[in-house]
Amino acid sequence: MFAARAHRRIRYVRRPVSVKHFLLCAIFLSMPVRSAAFPHRAAPAQALAEFGSPRVRSALAWLKEHVAAITETQICLTEIPAPPFHEARRAETVRSLLESAGLAVQIDRTGNVIGTLPGAAPKNGQPDLVMISAHLDTVFPPGTVVKVRREGERLIAPGISDNGAGLSSLVALARAFQAAQLRPHHTILFVADVGEEGEGNLRGMRAVVDDYRERLKAVIVLDGSSTDHVTTRALASRRLEATITGPGGHSWSDFGSPNPINALVRGAVRFINTKVPAAPRTTFNLGQVEGGTSVNSIPYDARLKVDIRSESDDELVRLESAFRECIAAGVRDEMEASRDRSRGKLEFKIDTLGVRPSGELRGDSPLLAAVRAADNFVGNQSRLERSSTDANIPLSVGIDAISIGAGGAGGGAHSLQEWYEPSGREMGLQRALLTLVATSGLSGEKTK
Ligand SMILES: [Zn+2]
Prior knowledge:
CATH superfamily of the largest domain: Zn peptidases
Structural class: alpha+beta
Radius of gyration: 25 Å
Helix content: 25-40%
Number of strands: 21
Distance between the termini: 44 Å
Number of domains: 2
Number of helices: 12
CATH architecture of the largest domain: 3-Layer(aba) Sandwich
Bound molecules: zinc ion
């Protein structure tokens, strides 16, 4: 086991990640940890007051001192491609980084990296785990150039913020706990999960929540950079794919046969004319269209993927049935318009690619109190918002969860021009650490 891991690390050196970044990453990994005797007085109830305690201050100072190294780790992780369903290579690197932060780390059957920092609290059948997570995957397909470009302070690369910022911060928080010898009252799971984006359909978070459901007290999701919000409401969404098939044929000699692309266009035009309310906010996006073989062939098939979202479950259901009806009507219209139905007819189906459930954090949740206390302490202002994130899954089953940005500034998410600027990063890191400390509680901390 150990030999195998050592082997993996050596292979990592040989991978085409630039040598400079590997070395910087390795420097980050090998930074010394101060040691000190460790008292074991449990004082979880005073967690909020513990922000001013020496060990917490030491953890906050560690984050401030290591901002540059954390940014180098972010570059290092961003330059390891992690397309949807291909997160394994990046996962292995995160595993090594979390191990070097002193955690017991495993990769589960879904591909999630799970590092455990044991808490001091005895297991008593109550929820005893706090999870902090960041997703590994990007929206970018294999072959996308993920090399990070620098323009002054600005770092530009697909996935640099979403979720290079979250992942590097996850590792940094584990390192800060280790460096300051912070021992949590409740066990903390540091999780780098797969499948957050698009058709990943939150499968990584679904698996972890499934596995730990009875024991999970709270989930803190690190996603992107911005510290101006706390996502406490899960935006429900559906992703659907319409597929229309037909007999195909020659553009000239078979003209008049039903054409799947024609039918798709007819149905799509009907759908985009569907009225959606501004409140509750309801949206749709035609995101991907495929089909056909050549310009002079009547196609055999046509496919369309749509994403629909709403603050209201009723509106979501209404819009989903509108999509189904519009595609059916498009197929009907095309069949009626075709001159020659003897060669066959059109068939269609609608597949569900993803369903993201809704949910909401209660206003009196201790987790919300924790992030509010952290905001006060670091002087940050944030608003509550609704979004579609990994937090949808725990929220949908009644587990307290929030999603927050990890610090710094970013933009252009899901585009090739995605950027990140580390200025202000330390505040985001400290805010996340304090939220985690207030939620997990600390063991052996004197309060002031
Ligand atoms: Zn993200």
